[in-house]
Amino acid sequence: MHAHVPPVFWPVLWLYILRLWITLYEAALEGRETVLYTVGRTGIIYVTHMADSEAERRARCLLGEDFDRTPWTRLLPLDLGELAALFQPQFRETPSLHPACTANTPSLHHLAAPP
């Protein structure tokens, strides 16, 4: 860590290392499996990820077997009646972005080779 932090910030780094050790110790007591952290250029250590504790994993309930995970696959289409014609797909020719301006341009195949 000292290699990434300039010496002027080392006292800050030592303080945050102490705080990181306390955080890791508390995470281990809570049963958290992983803790990810990054060290900033000024010596500040940021905890970026902390896994769920044992109590959080126990508190999370599982979904029942009858839970419908994809309800949209069984939805019936809407009955629009007379308005259904308005929502029919219409296919039209898309106009080009640039007008045809190459009518007077000679073809590359008819150009003479350079001398």
Keyphrases for this structure?
115 residues, 2 strands, alpha+beta, two-stranded antiparallel ribbon
Percent range for β-strand residues? 5-15%
Q: Mind summarizing the main beta sheet?
A: 2 strands, antiparallel
Structural class: alpha+beta
Number of helices: 2
The tally of strands reads 2
The helix fraction, in percent, is 10-25%
Q: What order do the strands of the largest sheet run in, or round the barrel if closed?
A: 1-2
Radius of gyration: 33 Å
**Could you give the order of the helices and strands?**
HEEH
Broad shape:
flat
Low-pLDDT sequence parts: none
Mean pLDDT metric: 77
Distance between the termini: 66 Å
Please identify the oligomeric state.
single chain
Write a structural description.
With 115 residues, the chain is an alpha+beta fold. It is built from two helices and two strands, in the order H-E-E-H. A hairpin with a 5-residue loop joins strand 1 and strand 2. It is 23% helix and 10% strand. A two-stranded antiparallel sheet has the order 1-2. It has helices at residues 10-30, 54-59, and strands at 35-39, 45-50. The N and C termini lie far apart (66 Å). The protein has a domain at 1-60. The mean pLDDT is 77.
In short:
This protein is of the alpha+beta class. The chain is about 25% helix and about 10% strand.
SSE layout:
Blueprint: H1 10-30, E1 35-39, E2 45-50, H2 54-59
Antiparallel strand pairs: 1-2
